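COMPLEX REQUEST
Ligand: magnesium ion
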Amino acid sequence: MKARDRLRIAIQKSGRLAEPARELLARIGLSFRESRDRLFCYGESLPIDLLLVRDDDIPGLIAEGTCDLGIVGRNVLAEQAANRRAAGQPEAYRELRALGFGACRLSIAVPQEQADAPLAALAGRRIATSYPGLLEAFLRARGVDAEVVLLSGSVEIAPRLGKAEAICDLVSTGGTLAANQLRETEVVFESEAVLAGPPAGFDDARAELAALFLRRLDGVLRVRD
Ligand code: PRP
Ligand code: ZN
Ligand code: MG
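STATUS: Structure written out below.
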């Protein structure tokens, strides 16, 4: 691969992690000049640039080498890693640091009036989710044979639409579940924002930049604790 002398970090363009990710990078001492389309930010204080993307694209961008590091939910990283494993593909990214913001959990939820039923009652039922890899692993481990229905969004309305009997989605404040008369019954996966990178290091100038970035990040994370 062509040697690169600038480090490229992918972050969410808009959404829950976008602001805190920018704040963290500022705290690390990075400053940027934004392009007009706000997709690329050129690093001014250090040769570290930003790419502003959809969070779901971040693991793939790291896997293909388009970006060197990324700030993304552990849920997204773990889901895509599970899918790669299932497809027999090699590991292509790993979690380098937990960042201490964006905490949420991937949980199973059911209509409020069924909230007292045990997990086993979902056998033979449909569970709608955008996280089939994590959900299937959880169901397998618990020995529950439910049908996983893949939905890319608006998972919380699936029960009312008759598409599923339960859902498995991210819960942060719980507001979305409450608004849809759903109750959380099982936590499938605990998540927060993480720094992700390739499984192996870099073999050009990016190695030193990544080490510098991690040193500064660790300093900022220590102060936070
Ligand atoms: C997640 C999830 C719920 C919501 C839950 O979506 O899908 O819709 O957050 O949060 P709450 O418990 O605070 O109500 P999010 O907006 O993160 O992203 P999405 O567009 O990928 O669904
Ligand atoms: Zn998303
Ligand atoms: Mg949502």
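REMARKS: The mean pLDDT is 96. The chain is about 30% helix and 30% strand.
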